[in-house]
Amino acid sequence: MKPKSKIFSGKTLAILTGGGDTPALNSSIESIRNRASMLGFKVYGIRKGWKGLLGNGDIINLTHHPYDGWYGGTALSSSRTNPFPTKKNPENRVPQILKNLKNYKIDVLVSIGGDDTNGAAKKLYETEGIPVIGFPKTIDNDLRTHTMHSYLGQDVEAVLCPGFPSAVQSIMEFANRMRTTCESHQRICVLEVMGRDAGWLTGGAFYGGAEISLVPEFEMTRERKEVFFDKVKEAYMRSPKKAIVVAVSEGVRWWDDERETLEVVYASSELDEYGHPRFGGISGIISSEINQRLGIESRAQITGYYPRSGNCSEYDRKLTVTLADKVADLLLREEYGQMPVMAKMVKHIELEEYNTSTIDMGTIGNRPLQTVYYDKDEFTFTNAYHDFLSHIVDKPEINEFRYDFPVVLPE
Ligand code: F6P
Description:
By secondary structure, this protein is of the alpha/beta class. The chain is built from 9 helices and 19 strands. It has a 5-stranded mixed beta sheet with strand order 3-2-1-4-5, with helices on both faces. The chain binds 6-O-phosphono-beta-D-fructofuranose.
């Protein structure tokens, strides 16, 4: 007897990745590919985000090919191409995109991205009726996922995006490692962490032993700067080895004493197609002010792409597999304009489809760090944040050199 064909045989699903990469993108692509092809879809990869649907198209076939989902980044490549007209690119690219979707006979599109990429996908769904499913990704963890974190009997609206767990683990390890060099030189190390306008990722450095943290959600006004310097001095004097790590988000708003304004430090003022400039350099300014004001030696370190690089963490791997299960569910129900998310914060073992839900892509947007997660008077993350992070990563053992030696006096 001839076997029955699979439910979506003859249909094609295409996947694209847009925006900054993460260590969990290949895992997301592989997991979605596996589930879609199990349902009978032919699965294509669109290269370089929305750019791969321009011109004659740049498409590869992912069906029935080996794939390494542990390897970080995206085998499809990424870009910040915007299909819709913007100041930077006034051309409306939607007709090209529609033409290519038709030419390549793409029935369903899965866009893996943050607010920008999925926002564009949502617009294509709403205005052109393209069957689209969004899939979250960002190391910044600022894409609203409506994930509930139950803490001391209260529900806090947290965020959990694939890519963040791997990135936060790297930042945590980075901060923890910095201690040995800071101790050797009795320095204050100011560690700059990516995350754009959100401080979620900087919390990883705190979990890794940074004594003080600054996040973009709380402006460093003239008054707050005074308190900050006092806290830095106290923490330094208290530290047994006269060495501390201060973690700062790249997007911190910092009072400029000369210009008398709050400033953000840009690596480049050039805007991408979604209107974002690139941040970078705030750690140098804070570090030199620590040197001058406190007379304590300080060095700036930009962690840059370190958290974005390298392999997918175990948590991210299972998270992407679980959310891909939910994509399969959406495909079976032919529900589009939706994005799978974790309904609640859970540990690795509970990352299962029954703990997922979907949200209307119309309700996504940016979600900054919640006030409950940050103590603005102490410049530290709170126990609630520790609890949030403890679902995702194990707190590292903070290494210490525990030996002390008697001082020898001249005879
Ligand atoms: O959005 C992800 C992110 O890594 C941000 O944290 C950072 O500000 C930005 O991308 C850097 O962009 P680029 O990849 O253009 O250097």
